[in-house]
Amino acid sequence: MSPDELLTKKDLERFKEELFDLLKPLTDAQALQQQKWLRSQDVMKMLNISAGTLQNMRVAGNITYNKVGKIFFYKAADIDRMLSGVEKKSPKRKKL
Hints:
The chain is mostly helical and 96 residues long. Helix content is 54%, strand content 11%. It has helices spanning 9-34, 40-47, 51-60, 76-83, and strands at residues 37-39, 66-68, 71-75. It has a three-stranded antiparallel β-sheet with strand order 1-3-2. Strand 2 and strand 3 (71-75) form a beta hairpin.
């Protein structure tokens, strides 16, 4: 670039857009790498359930998982969503 050429605001805006387009795939990949995974025993502790109940949840499709070898992994974000869901109240008992 010669000293006679000037950068305009439009040039800088275009450069910024190109730079963000190049960086976006990198930030998406980092987000995937930072995703936390939990093992079955961690999920059982968090939800206060037994191994059988966790298995029933997997079979019924109530909880998503990935299996690597013999180990089940669960996304921490999915478990957090389950825990922050709407609380169910027990029905009131009628007085006899």
